[in-house]
Write a sequence for this structure.
């Protein structure tokens, strides 16, 4: 964080329950009345390629954030299963995969994602407001080996958001290095119909 340790009088860490910041570090600098505040997002990884959820919400929540047009909403809700499939013999009777939509529908979603890519990546990684995350701390423990790395959130936005917006062979969407899929699981409860975004935080260890 580029502090001179000799200038620091006191550091207090506060655990938060905000959408994106897990820990707020309050740094008191000697001979200063003000306290610096650093918002840190923490990702715990227990294997070499530990995919980690970074955001999950019902489609209606994302509509409020991103002003998603109705035709794209209709596609997303069939993708997550909020609306039943509109094709015969879908791979999953509960929902549709991205590659089961018509070519024009697929193109419509890809164009919308590309147009709003920067906003989406920022919201799902960094968040908004006073508790938006400024740093990402990744702590990894595999068997007896442990390590950690701290990166500025702007670096993380560039890293994970870098790349094309595509439809994968598995029928999901991908924004750069960020996976986008139906949440699933949860014993078939309504929460399974959320839209979920995932990353592999361990990739940051390639940039020590």
């Amino acid at each position: 964080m580029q502090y001179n340790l000799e200038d620091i009088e006191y550091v207090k860490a506060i655990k938060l329950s905000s959408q994106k910041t897990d820990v707020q570090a309050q740094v008191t600098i000697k001979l200063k009345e003000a306290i610096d505040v650093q918002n840190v997002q923490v990702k715990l990884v227990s294997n070499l390629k530990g995919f980690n959820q970074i955001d999950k919400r019902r489609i209606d929540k994302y509509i409020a954030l991103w002003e998603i047009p109705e035709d794209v909403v209709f596609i997303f809700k069939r993708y997550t299963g909020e609306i039943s499939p509109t094709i015969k013999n879908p791979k999953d009777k509960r929902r549709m995969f991205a590659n089961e939509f018509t070519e024009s529908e697929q193109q419509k979603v890809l164009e919308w994602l590309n147009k709003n890519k920067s906003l989406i990546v920022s919201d799902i990684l960094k968040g908004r407001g006073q508790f938006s995350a400024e740093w990402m701390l990744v702590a990894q423990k595999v068997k007896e080996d442990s390590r950690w790395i701290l990166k500025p959130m702007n670096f993380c936005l560039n890293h994970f958001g870098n790349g094309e917006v595509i439809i994968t062979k598995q029928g999901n969407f991908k924004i750069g290095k960020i996976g986008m899929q139906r949440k699933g699981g949860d014993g078939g409860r309504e929460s399974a119909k959320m839209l979920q975004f995932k990353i592999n935080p361990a990739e940051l260890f390639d940039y020590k």
